[in-house]
């Protein structure tokens, strides 16, 4: 029985990961430590809340007393650190919390794991700290080329700078202490349960509510999109097969301009959901400050060394995603009205 400490498991990717893992394995237990910021939503975990192999802990990864207690109470085998402030636009307005959670929170987790896993000058075997990182740490590309694991880090936003700093600290624990770590750097994710501040759920929600669709700048910035379940599968493989100390890029060679994404969403909704929605909703607005032009991941290493490949192509993934939001209007209403933030009190009474 392996025990996972998943942080940020009530967010978009973390909640998909917790459910994917509990579905796939009977012989694991997961402790989900989440602060339930605006981005954390326990409704995402409704289907597993009574699973005997799942425990929720409400708290902050920066709280060293709490984190140490979790390690004292449980024999944690793997840490999967999703917890982060994750939205670039918010980081431009309020950088401080990004530095605190994304850097100091990661250091707090590393220290607790290092102490709990120490075995003389070495570490107990079978332990691993997996840092969930992002392609944004590499900065931006022009119209050609790809990010490889050896591309120098050159982040531009406070968000990506805080994530790059965290990556370097995680790497330093390997270089200095030989702590067992891996880092995964994934491209843009999309899929169910993504908070509607990010491009794809925002556009779906605005279309369904006949609101304007804000396109930053000229709309020709390129992102490399991956269906969230494929990211979860990659993390599972890196935990089980990743070579200690290594970084793995995760992506599926699926580049789209923002305009292409928005038009795809509009056209699907127009044809299948609401014929009154059309491209006239598109509206060009002021550009994001320091807006990275293009991200594109080279996933050759994880494919060649660990055998991971994406399984859901964009054409299928975007339909699954739009259909999920159409079927789960209540989820979106709770999120956009703030009602989801009462969920913890209602469903976790007395725990
Ligand atoms: P998210 O914003 O949806 O979720 C973040 C979660 O972390 C929330 O549940 C939130 O409550 C929790 N959290 C925030 N601060 C915390 C703290 N101090 N202590 C404990 N919990 C805290 O983010 P996401 O999109 O699911 O991203 C998850 C991770 O994956 C992040 O580390 C992000 O940098 C990385 N990532 C995201 C993408 C993407 O496209 N979304 C791509 C690559 C990497
Ligand atoms: O309203 C919008 N209009 C718009 O044109 C929004 C919200 C975004 N955009 C553009 C900006 C980007 O070029 O769409 C693109 C995608 O924007 P986001 O969804 O904010 O994602 P991005 O900035 O690329 O960062 C995401 O991918 C990497 C995640 O938020 C990060 O957590 C992850 O690390």
From TrEMBL:
It is an enzyme of class 4 (lyase). GO terms for molecular function: dTDP-glucose 4,6-dehydratase activity. Transmembrane segments: none annotated. Keywords: Lyase, NAD. Pfam families: GDP_Man_Dehyd (PF16363). InterPro entries: dTDP_Gluc_deHydtase, NAD(P)-bd_dom, NAD(P)-bd_dom_sf. GO terms for biological process: nucleotide-sugar metabolic process. Its cofactor is NAD(+). CDD domains: dTDP_GD_SDR_e. The keyword Lyase applies. Residues 5-318 form the NAD(P)-binding domain. NCBIfam families: dTDP_gluc_dehyt (TIGR01181). This is dTDP-glucose 4,6-dehydratase. It comes from Clostridium oryzae. The lineage of its organism: Bacteria, Bacillati, Bacillota, Clostridia, Eubacteriales.
């Amino acid at each position: 029985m392996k025990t996972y400490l998943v942080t940020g498991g009530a967010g978009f990717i973390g909640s998909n990961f917790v459910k994917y893992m509990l579905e796939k394995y009977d012989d694991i237990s997961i402790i989900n430590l989440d602060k339930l910021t605006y981005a954390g939503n326990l409704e995402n975990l409704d289907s597993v809340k009574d699973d005997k192999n799942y425990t929720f802990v409400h708290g902050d990864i920066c709280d060293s007393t709490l984190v140490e207690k979790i390690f004292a109470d449980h024999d944690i085998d793997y840490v999967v650190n999703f917890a982060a402030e994750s939205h670039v636009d918010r980081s431009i307005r309020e950088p401080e919390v990004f530095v605190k959670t994304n850097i100091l929170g990661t250091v707090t987790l590393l220290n607790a794991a290092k102490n709990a896993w120490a075995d003389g000058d070495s570490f107990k075997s079978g332990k691993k700290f997996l840092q969930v990182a992002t392609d944004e740490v590499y900065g931006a590309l022009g119209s050609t080329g790809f990010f490889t694991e050896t591309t120098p880090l050159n982040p531009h936003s406070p968000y990506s700078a805080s994530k790059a700093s965290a990556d370097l600290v995680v790497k330093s624990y390997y270089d200095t202490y030989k702590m067992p770590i891996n880092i995964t750097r994934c491209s843009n994710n999309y899929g169910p349960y993504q908070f509607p501040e990010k491009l794809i759920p925002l556009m779906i929600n605005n279309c369904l509510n006949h609101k304007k669709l804000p396109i930053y700048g000229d709309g020709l910035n390129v992102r490399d999109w991956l269906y969230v379940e494929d990211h979860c599968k990659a993390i599972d493989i890196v935990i089980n097969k990743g070579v200690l100390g290594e970084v793995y890029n995760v992506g599926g060679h699926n580049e789209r301009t923002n305009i292409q994404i928005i038009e795809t969403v509009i056209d699907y909704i127009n044809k299948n959901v609401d014929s009154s929605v059309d491209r006239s909703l598109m509206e060009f607005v002021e550009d994001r400050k320091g807006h990275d032009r293009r991200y594109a991941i080279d996933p050759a290493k994880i494919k060649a060394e660990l055998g991971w490949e994406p399984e859901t192509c964009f054409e299928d993934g975007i339909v699954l995603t739009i259909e999920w939001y159409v079927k789960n209007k209540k989820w979106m209403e709770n999120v956009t009205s703030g009602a989801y933030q009462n969920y913890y009190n209602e469903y976790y009474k007395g725990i």
